Amino acid sequence: MSSVIKAENIVLAYKSHEPIIRNTTFDIKSNEFVFITGKSGSGKSTVIKSMYGALKPSFGDLTVCGVKMKNVSSGKLKFLRKHLGVVFQDYKLINEWSVEQNVMLPLMIGGFSPQVCKVQAQKLLKHVDMIDKMRSFPMELSGGEQQRVAMARALAHNPVVILADEPTGNLDDYSSEIIWDLLKSAKKHLGTTIVAVTHKIPQTIATDYKQYFLDNGKMHEVI
Amino acid sequence: MRSFRNHISLIIPLFIMFFSFNVLLILDRTVQAYEHSLLEDFNMVIIASKELDLSTISKESKSIGLIKTIDIDKVLNSLNINLDDINTTVLKSSLPIFYQIKLKDFLNDDKVQILKSSLEKNPNIIKVEEFKASHDLIHQFLILVETILLVFTGFILIISLLLIIKQISIWVYEHSQRISIMELFGAPFFMKSKILYKLMLIDSIFSALSATVLISYLMNHELVIKFYEKLALEIPPFNTLSDVFTMLGIALVLSLVLVSITIFKNKKDIQYS
Ligand SMILES: Nc1ncnc2c1ncn2[C@@H]1O[C@H](COP(=O)(O)OP(=O)(O)OP(=O)(O)O)[C@@H](O)[C@H]1O
Ligand SMILES: [Mg+2]
Question: Which of A110, B10, B69, B197 has the greatest count of CB atoms below 10 A from its CB?
Answer without folding.
Answer: B10
